[in-house]
Amino acid sequence: MIVLSANNLTKTYGTDVIIDKASFHLNAGDKVGIIGRNGAGKTTLLNMLTGELPCDEGEFFVSQNTRIGYLKQRDNFSSEGTVLEEIEGIFSGLRELENEIAELSDKVAENPHDTGLINRLDELQHRFDREGGYTYKSEMIGILNSMAFDESFYNKKISSLSGGERTRLALAALLLEKPDILLLDEPTNHLDIGTLKWLEQYLEAYRGTIMIVSHDRYFLDRTVNRIFEVENHKVYSYQGKYSDYAAQKKLRRETELRAYNNQQREIARQEEMIRRMKQRGTEHLAKRAASREKRLDMLERIERPESEMGKMKIKKGDTVRVIAGTDKGKEGKVLVVDHENSRVIVEGINMATKHLKGNGGQQQGGIVHKEAPIHVSNVMYLHDGVPTRLGVKREVEMKDGKKKTTLHRVAKKADGAVID
C-alpha cells in the first residue's frame, strides 16, 4: 500500500535550484536511505515532505490517518521541564485514560450493580490495553536507557543538557511516539558504539516506513532496503541496500550516457542533411530543410549526464602532511583511498577532517573522515595485515569454496584490543 506519493516536487531559492521535479512513492514498510553530497538538498527534501517548507512546484500526498515523525539535525525542545517530564508528556493521553479508569473503578466499587458503569470500565480497560497502557512505562525506561539516559538524568532540566544529549533525547522521544512514517536526519550523530548498534536493530525491526538521511554506509546497509540519491537537483531511486546502489548507479550512468550520445549523433546527422539541402538552393529542398529544422527544434533534448567528481590525486602509499587541525604538521602514509567519498585513511593520523599536502607539496582536496561516532585512539590499525577502515573489523571466511568478507563495527583501545 502506498503511504506517500510525491509528484514533480521542486524547490528553488532565487535562481538556485535545490530540488527539481522529484517524483517517487513510498510503500508501507519501505526503509529508504537518502544520500548525497553536503548541500545537495537532502534536508530540504525532508522539510518539504513534512510541510515545514513549501514546494515551489509539484505536490505530495500522504495516506489518510498516517502520522509522520521527524527528527531534525536540531531539536525543537522548548520545555524547561525535566528529561522524564518531557518523555512522559508523549503518553499524556494514556495517563489521562489511566486516571479515568482509576476514578471509574472507585465508582464501580461503590455501585457494583450498575451495568452502565461496568460496561464503560470494561471498554476503557480494553482501549488502555490496546494502546499499550500496561507496557508504556517499561518501554519508556527501556528506550531511555538504550539512549544512554539512566536514572541520574531523569530530573535534569532540558536546558542543562548538551547538544548531543538533546539530540539523543529527541530521538528517544520520536521512537516512543511510533509514527507511521519516521523521518530521520543524521540520526547517528552523537551516538556511541553501543547505542548505534541498538538503533540499527530497532530500525531493522520497525514496522512503519522510514526515511533516513545519513552518510554512514554501514548503518544504511543494516537498516534500509531502498536508496534515494539526491544529485544534480534530481532524486534517483535504487532498490536494495547501500552496497547494491553503486552497481545500479554505474549502470544508470552508462544507460543515460549511451542515450545522450545516440541522440547527439542523430542531431548531427539531421543538421548535416539540413545544411546540404540548403546548399542546393532549390525551393523544394528549402521547404524540406525548414520542415526538418522545425522537427529538430521540437525534439526533447537529453541532458548530458554530469561526470563523476574528479578523483583525488593522492594515492595509496603516498606520504601526506596535515596542514590544519590538531594534528597539523604530522605526516603519515596513505593506507586507503576512497575516491567515491573523497576520503583517505592515513596511518598514525587522528581520523578527523583534515587538509592534506601530497608528496609534491601540492594541496589536495582529500578528507580524512572519522567513522563517527566511534571514539578510538589516534592510531590506524591493521587487521590481519589488511588496511581496515577506522572502527570496522574485517572477518574473512570460506563458504562453499568462496571467500566471504564481513565487516563489523568495533571500537579499539590504544593497544589495539577490541572493546566489546
Description:
- With 420 residues, the chain is of the alpha/beta class.
- It has 10 helices and 21 strands.
- A 6-stranded mixed beta sheet has the order 5-6-7-3-8-9, with helices on both faces. A 6-stranded mixed beta sheet has the order 14-13-10-11-12-15, with no helix packed on it.
- The C terminus is likely disordered.
Strand order across the biggest sheet? 5-6-7-3-8-9
Task: State the helicity in percent bands.
Answer: 25-40%
Question: DSSP helix count?
Answer: 10
Instruction: Kindly provide the radius of gyration, computed on alpha-carbon positions and rounded to a whole number of angstroms.
Output: 29 Å
Counting DSSP E segments of at least 2 residues, the number of strands comes to: 21
Determine the mean pLDDT.
78
Distance between the termini: 41 Å
Write the layout of secondary structure elements.
Elements: E1 2-13, E2 16-27, E3 31-35, H1 42-49, E4 57-62, E5 68-71, H2 83-88, H3 92-110, H4 115-130, H5 136-146, H6 163-177, E6 181-185, H7 193-205, E7 209-213, H8 217-223, E8 226-231, E9 234-239, H9 242-280, H10 283-298, E10 319-322, E11 331-338, E12 343-346, E13 356-357, E14 363-364, E15 367-368, E16 382-383, E17 386-387, E18 392-399, E19 402-409, E20 411-412, E21 418-419
Helix pairs in contact: 3-4, 5-6, 9-10
